[in-house]
Amino acid sequence: MSKIESGAVSGYRQAEFDIDPVYVRRWSPRSFSSAQVDDDTLLSLFEAARWAPSANNEQPWQFIVARTEAEKTVFLGFINEGNRLWCDKAPVIALALSNRINSRGRPNRTHAFDTGAAWGFMALEATRKGLVTHAMGGFDADKARASLGIPEDYEAHAVIAIGYQGDEEALPENLREREKPSDRKPVAQMLHSGTFGNRSS
């Protein structure tokens, strides 16, 4: 199969309990097609991120978006080589950041946690719209700060490739075998009853 369509994802992963299928259908391909994402569709992803929960409704997240070739070239300058091999084909690349300082001028202990929620909402909306996303931690945060003029109060968390899924044959050979949805640990492996290490089963 040259491309794993959303309907075929169930062949790789199954939910243990009843949830909306969008959670299982969301995965992180590396192959992107050259098809552009129109403005309204792209902005709908950030609209979804807008409605994520955050402590004291601080909404600390910010996104820097690269769509032109010139903008993407700047991003590729701080993305690790292993990720540049495939993410340069994505029509949109975004950098997720968050403000470490809250509206009262104090450290915001949950800024990263809250921004992770915003990214999750965004990724699910992308899946619902037929898009794919792939978040990357492999980038030089200091270089990103210098290249994009990011203020010191903000922390860069992840680079996100956004677009439509491409064929796996477009990837370097060493990445093709990884171009499939990953499974997840069972629910029981992440739950503790009352205290850490006390497993309910």
UniProtKB/TrEMBL annotation:
Residues 170-201 are annotated as: Disordered. GO terms for molecular function: oxidoreductase activity. Residues 25-73, 82-164 form the Nitroreductase domain. Keywords: Oxidoreductase. InterPro entries: Nitroreductase (IPR029479), Nitroreductase-like (IPR000415). Signal peptide: none annotated. The keyword Oxidoreductase applies. SUPFAM superfamilies: FMN-dependent nitroreductase-like. Pfam families: Nitroreductase. Residues 174-186 have a biased composition (Basic and acidic residues). PANTHER family: NAD(P)H NITROREDUCTASE YDGI-RELATED (PTHR43673), NADH DEHYDROGENASE_NAD(P)H NITROREDUCTASE XCC3605-RELATED (PTHR43673:SF10). Belongs to the nitroreductase family. This is Nitroreductase family protein.
